[in-house]
Design a protein that fits this description.
mainly alpha, globular
């Protein structure tokens, strides 16, 4: 015979499953969100929200082209995290380290573009290297202020 707790879990699970089946047949389901223009009337919420989301989708696509074209869409995060793993004693809450991580992110993007031979849609190699220079100087200032 099964212990009482196991029986209660089984009964509870069966009850929840039965309720779910019943809800599916009796509760009206709102229209499914679709991204095409024909379904604008089916969207709930503020229209401006969806305009902003559409802009973010475009921005994400363009930036992802620069950071990961031809590779893993999250590759930039994985590559930088692998580099940071080489330094287990780094205190990532230290602003001087954060400035270097920002610079590393930009350097990674430049290296990825060079290694794949693709041009940027948002910010090219020169812009990335300028960002590295700015973050490097900011890191120097943070380091001076820390002393």
């Amino acid at each position: 015979m099964a212990p009482k707790d196991e029986v209660d879990k089984e009964v509870s699970h069966t009850f929840q499953f039965d309720m779910l089946e019943e809800q599916e047949s009796t509760v009206p389901i709102p229209p499914i969100f679709e991204t095409n223009a024909e379904s604008e009337e089916n969207k709930y919420g503020h229209p401006r929200f969806y305009e902003i989301i559409d802009g973010l989708k475009s921005l994400h696509s363009e930036k992802n082209h620069d950071y990961a074209a031809g590779g893993d869409p999250l590759g930039n995060f994985r590559r930088v995290s692998q580099i940071l793993a080489l330094y287990p004693n780094l205190k990532l809450s230290n602003p001087t380290i954060v400035a270097l991580v920002y610079a590393l992110k930009q350097l990674d993007a430049a290296l990825w573009m060079l290694s794949n031979g693709h041009s940027a849609k948002v910010e090219g190699i020169a812009g990335r290297l300028k960002d590295v220079a700015v973050y490097s100087i900011l890191q120097m200032i943070l380091n001076e202020e820390e002393k």
